[in-house]
C-alpha cells in the first residue's frame, strides 16, 4: 500500500481579468476520479490544503448544464458527500513532509490559480517530492501549482520537464474565456517547462520520469491509471 498526498486548493474565488470575482474551487470530476481510483486500489490518501483550510468544490463542476449529464453530477456529489469530512478538515500542508509519501496528486479546477500557484508550502512540498523521486501528478489546472516550485537560487524546479495542462484553446472556448486572468500553459512555458498539448477536450497524459500530468477533466482516469502504474514499479 502506498501513501498518497493529495494537495487540493482552498480557494473559493478567483479574480478575473475584468476585476470581478469568479466562484471556484477544485473540479469535482478530477478529485473524485483520482481519489476513488487510488483508494479502490488500496492506497492511503491524505488530503491537504494550504493552512488546512476547507477544500471547496467549484460549483460549476456540479452543474448539469456544464457537466452535461445529471446522473454523473449526482454520482460525483454522492462521492463528495462520502468524503466530506476530509474536505472540510484537511491536513495542514506545511505540517507534512512530502517525502514521506509515495506520490503527490494535484487535481485542478481554477482554484489552484488563486492559491497553489503562489503558495510557499506547496512549492516546498513539490520540490522535496520531486527531488526524492516521488510521483508528482498534477492535471487540468493542477499544474498551476508547479509554478510555486522555485528553488532557493530562483530556478524553476520543473524547467525542461515535459508536461501538459489545460490549454489556451480550452480556456478560451470552454473555460473562463476572455475574462481569463492568465493562462497556465503560457506561464509554465515562460518558466521553462516543455508544454505539450493534444486536441481540445481529449484525454491526454504526459509522463516524464516521475512527473505525470493531464490536460483536462477528460484525462482524469488516464492520470490515475498512470500514477498506479508508476506506484507498482
TrEMBL record:
Residues 28-229 form the DJ-1/PfpI domain. Belongs to the peptidase C56 family. HSP31-like subfamily. The keyword Cell inner membrane does not apply. The keyword tRNA processing does not apply. This is Type 1 glutamine amidotransferase domain-containing protein. It comes from the Bacteria. Keywords: Glutamine amidotransferase, Lyase, Stress response. InterPro entries: Class_I_gatase-like, DJ-1/PfpI, Prot/Nucl_acid_deglycase.
Amino acid at each position: 500500500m502506498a501513501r498518497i498526498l493529495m494537495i487540493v486548493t482552498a480557494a473559493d474565488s478567483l479574480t478575473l481579468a475584468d476585476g470581478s470575482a469568479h466562484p471556484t474551487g477544485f473540479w469535482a470530476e478530477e478529485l473524485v476520479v483520482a481519489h476513488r481510483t487510488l483508494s479502490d486500489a488500496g492506497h492511503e490518501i491524505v488530503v491537504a490544503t494550504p493552512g488546512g483550510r476547507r477544500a471547496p468544490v467549484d460549483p460549476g463542476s456540479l452543474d448539469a448544464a456544464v457537466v452535461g449529464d445529471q446522473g454523473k453530477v449526482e454520482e460525483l456529489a454522492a462521492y463528495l458527500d462520502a468524503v466530506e469530512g476530509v474536505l472540510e478538515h484537511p491536513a495542514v500542508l506545511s505540517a507534512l513532509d512530502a517525502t514521506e509519501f509515495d506520490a503527490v496528486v494535484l487535481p485542478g479546477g481554477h482554484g489552484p490559480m488563486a492559491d497553489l500557484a503562489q503558495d510557499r508550502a506547496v512549492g516546498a512540498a513539490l520540490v522535496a517530492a520531486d527531488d526524492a523521486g516521488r510521483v508528482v501528478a498534477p492535471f487540468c489546472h493542477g499544474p498551476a501549482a508547479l509554478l510555486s516550485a522555485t528553488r532557493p537560487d530562483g530556478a524553476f524546479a520543473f524547467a525542461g520537464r515535459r508536461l501538459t495542462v489545460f490549454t489556451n484553446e480550452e480556456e478560451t472556448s470552454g473555460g473562463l474565456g476572455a475574462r481569463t486572468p492568465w493562462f497556465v500553459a503560457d506561464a509554465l512555458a515562460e518558466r521553462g517547462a516543455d508544454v505539450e498539448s493534444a486536441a481540445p477536450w481529449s484525454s491526454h497524459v504526459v509522463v516524464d520520469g516521475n512527473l505525470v500530468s493531464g490536460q483536462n477533466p477528460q484525462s482524469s482516469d488516464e492520470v490515475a491509471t498512470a500514477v498506479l502504474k508508476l506506484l507498482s514499479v
